[in-house]
C-alpha cells in the first residue's frame, strides 16, 4: 500500500504549476469540461521553466511576510531543517491537524527546538482562508507558535507545486527538498494516522540518515489560488 | 471581491444519499443496487480515480445474509481544472454508483433491507467532509414474478447503461500503445480525447494539461519508470458531432518487453 502511495504521489509532482496557464488560456469550456480561470498572472506562468520539482532539488527560495508583517526568507534559515505546512485555516484537513487532533502541536513539541516550522497560506485575496486577520485568529485559536506566511500571489505555492492544504515539505540543512507529501497516513478529516511521515523523516534527518519515504501523496483541500 | 466561503452550519449537508433497489430479486440471481447522491448546485463530490485534491466517495452496504456485493461501478466523472494546475475528476448535481450484488441460492425469502453508510467530501470553494446513510427494502421472491420489470430499478438500469463501455481486446474504437514511458491513446474519428486515470493506473505526468487533446490521438508520459506499466481508467472520446463516449481501459505493458504487445491486466 505504501508503495502505491508513493507512486501516486509522483503524478502530483509532475503536474507542474505552469500547466495552469495553458489550461486557462484555452477558449471557453464546453459543457462538462469545467475550467476555473486562473488569476491574471496566468500568462506569466506559462513562460516559467516547466521543470518539475523533485526530492533532492534546491528548495525554491521565498521571502514572505507573516501575519504580523515580519519578513521570512528560506535563505535566512540556511543550515537549519525547515518544515513547511501549506495552510488554510478553513480547510477541514488543516482543522484536523490543528484543532481536532494534536498532530501539529505534537510535532512542534517534539522537534521545535531543532527544526524551524513555517506555515504558508497561498489563498488568493478574497478566497477561502485568506488575509492576515483570519490567519491571526487561527494562530491565536489554535495556539500556533510558529509564523503563518501569506503568499497571496500564490507564486511560492506554485513554485513548490503545492496543490493541497495541508501539504508538508521538509527542507534539509543544505536547503534541499527532503520530504514532500502528506503529514500522515490517514487521508480523512477526523483523526490522526498511524504513521506520521513528517516525524519519521525528521527522525531520519536528525540522525544523519537519508529519508526512507521522501514522497507520499498529499491529501486535503485544493489550494485556493 | 467575492466573500470568502464560510464554514457551513452544522447539519447542512451539501449532498444526500439514497439507496435504489429493484422491487424484488430471486435467490441465485444477481441485481444492481444504486447508491444515489443528490448534490447541491455548484458543489461537487469526488471520483475514485486519480485526483490532485479531495477524497473519493466511500460507501458501505449492509445487506441480509446471502447478499454479496461485487466491486462498485463508478460512472464517468467530469474533469475540473482549477488554478494552480489542480486537476480533479468530479460529480455534480447527481450521481448513481452501481453496486452489482449476487444473491445466494439459499437467501431467505421475504422482505430484505439494504442500508448504505457513506462518507464524502463536498467542495465548492470550501470543502466539507460529510456523511450520511439511507436504507430501502425489497423482496426476495421464491419464484420469478410474471413481470421481470420489478427486478430492475429504472434509474439504476439507466446509470448502468451509461457506464463507461468495457473494451474488448482489439476493439478498433480505442487503441493504446505503450512505448517505454510514453503512452498513446488513439480513437479514430475523434475530435477530442481525454484520459482519466483510475485508482490503479501508473501515474501520468502533467495530466491537467496533457490528459486532454483536441485530436484523434492523445500522447502522454508516465511519471515514473515502473514495471509493469498499467494504463487503466476512463477514456472520453468526443466525435466530430460533439457526442461523447466513455470507454473503460485497462492495459499494461513492460512485463514482457520483448513481445512488444500490451496485454490486459489481471483482475485485482
Write the layout of secondary structure elements.
The complex is a heterodimer of chains A (225) and B (268).
Chain A: H1 2-14, H2 19-25, E1 33-35, H3 42-47, E2 63-65, E3 71-73, E4 81-86, H4 92-100, H5 103-111, E5 115-121, H6 132-141, E6 148-150, H7 155-159, E7 164-165, E8 168-171, E9 177-181, H8 197-206, E10 221-222
Parallel strand pairs in A: 4-5, 5-6
Antiparallel strand pairs in A: 2-3, 4-8, 7-10, 8-9
Chain B: E1 15-20, E2 24-25, E3 30-39, E4 44-46, E5 58-62, E6 67-69, E7 78-82, E8 86-92, E9 94-103, E10 110-123, E11 127-140, H1 154-161, E12 165-166, E13 175-179, E14 182-186, E15 190-197, H2 207-210, E16 212-213, E17 217-221, E18 229-239, E19 244-253, E20 263-264
Parallel strand pairs in B: 2-11, 12-19
Antiparallel strand pairs in B: 1-3, 3-9, 4-8, 5-10, 6-9, 7-8, 10-11, 13-14, 14-17, 15-16, 15-18, 18-19, 19-20
The sequence of SSEs of chain B as H and E is EEEEEEEEEEEHEEEEHEEEEE
Q: Please tally the β strands of chain B and state the result.
A: 20
Output the structural class of chain B: mainly beta
Termini separation of chain A comes to 31 Å
Structural class of chain A: alpha/beta
Strands of chain A, total number? 10
CATH architectural arrangement of the largest domain in chain B: Sandwich
Q: Helicity of chain B, in percent?
A: under 10%
The unreliable regions of chain B are 1-9, 255-268
Classify the fold: give the CATH topology of the largest domain in chain B.
Answer: Immunoglobulin-like
Q: Give a quick account of the main beta sheet of chain B: strands, pairing sense, barrel closure.
A: 6 strands, mixed
Q: How many domains make up the coordinates of chain A?
A: 1
Mean pLDDT over all positions of chain A: 84
**Number of DSSP helical runs of chain B:** 2
Amino acid at each position: 500500500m505504501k508503495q502505491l502511495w508513493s507512486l501516486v504521489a509522483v503524478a502530483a509532482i509532475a503536474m507542474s504549476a505552469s500547466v495552469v496557464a495553458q489550461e486557462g488560456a484555452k477558449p471557453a469550456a464546453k459543457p462538462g469540461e469545467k475550467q476555473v480561470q486562473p488569476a491574471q498572472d496566468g500568462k506569466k506562468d506559462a513562460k516559467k521553466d516547466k521543470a518539475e520539482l523533485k526530492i533532492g532539488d534546491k528548495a525554491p527560495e521565498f521571502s514572505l511576510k507573516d501575519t504580523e508583517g515580519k519578513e521570512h526568507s528560506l535563505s535566512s534559515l540556511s543550515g537549519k531543517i525547515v518544515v513547511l505546512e501549506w495552510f488554510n485555516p478553513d480547510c477541514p484537513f488543516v482543522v484536523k491537524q490543528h484543532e481536532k487532533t494534536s498532530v501539529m502541536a505534537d510535532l512542534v513539541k517534539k522537534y521545535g527546538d531543532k527544526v524551524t516550522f513555517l506555515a504558508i497560506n497561498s489563498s488568493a485575496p478574497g478566497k477561502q482562508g485568506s488575509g492576515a486577520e483570519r490567519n491571526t485568529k487561527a494562530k491565536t485559536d489554535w495556539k500556533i507558535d510558529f509564523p503563518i506566511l501569506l503568499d497571496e500571489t500564490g507564486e511560492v505555492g506554485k513554485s513548490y507545486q503545492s496543490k493541497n492544504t495541508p501539504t508538508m515539505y521538509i527542507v534539509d540543512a543544505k536547503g534541499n527538498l527532503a520530504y514532500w507529501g502528506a503529514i500522515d497516513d490517514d487521508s480523512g478529516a477526523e483523526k490522526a494516522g498511524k504513521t506520521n511521515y513528517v516525524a519519521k523523516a525528521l527522525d531520519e534527518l536528525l540522525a544523519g540518515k537519508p529519508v526512507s519515504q521522501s514522497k507520499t501523496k498529499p491529501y486535503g483541500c485544493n489550494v485556493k489560488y | 471581491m467575492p466573500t470568502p466561503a464560510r464554514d457551513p452550519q452544522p447539519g447542512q449537508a451539501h449532498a444526500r444519499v439514497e439507496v435504489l433497489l429493484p422491487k424484488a430479486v430471486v435467490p441465485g440471481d444477481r441485481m444492481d443496487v444504486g447508491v444515489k447522491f443528490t448534490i447541491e448546485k455548484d458543489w461537487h463530490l469526488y471520483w475514485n480515480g486519480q485526483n490532485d485534491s479531495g477524497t473519493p466517495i466511500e460507501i458501505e452496504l449492509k445487506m441480509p445474509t446471502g447478499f454479496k456485493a461485487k466491486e462498485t461501478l463508478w460512472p464517468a466523472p467530469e474533469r475540473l481544472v482549477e488554478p494552480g494546475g489542480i486537476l480533479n475528476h468530479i460529480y455534480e448535481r447527481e450521481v448513481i454508483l452501481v453496486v452489482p450484488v449476487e444473491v445466494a441460492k439459499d437467501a431467505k425469502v421475504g422482505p430484505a433491507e439494504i442500508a448504505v453508510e457513506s462518507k464524502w467530501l463536498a467542495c465548492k470553494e470550501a470543502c466539507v467532509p460529510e456523511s450520511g446513510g439511507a436504507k430501502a427494502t425489497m423482496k426476495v421472491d421464491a419464484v420469478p414474478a410474471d413481470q421481470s420489470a420489478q427486478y430492475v430499478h429504472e434509474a439504476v438500469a439507466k446509470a448502468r447503461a451509461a457506464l463507461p463501455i468495457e473494451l474488448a481486446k482489439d476493439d478498433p474504437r480505442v487503441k493504446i500503445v505503450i512505448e517505454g514511458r510514453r503512452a498513446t491513446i488513439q480513437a479514430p474519428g475523434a475530435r477530442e480525447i481525454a484520459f482519466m486515470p483510475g485508482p490503479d493506473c501508473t501515474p501520468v505526468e502533467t495530466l491537467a494539461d496533457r490528459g486532454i487533446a483536441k485530436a484523434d490521438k492523445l500522447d502522454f508520459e508516465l511519471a515514473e519508470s515502473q514495471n509493469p506499466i498499467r494504463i487503466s481508467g476512463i477514456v472520453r472520446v468526443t466525435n466530430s458531432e460533439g457526442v461523447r463516449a466513455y470507454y473503460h481501459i485497462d492495459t499494461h505493458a513492460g512485463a514482457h518487453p520483448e513481445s512488444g504487445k500490451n496485454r490486459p491486466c489481471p483482475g485485482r
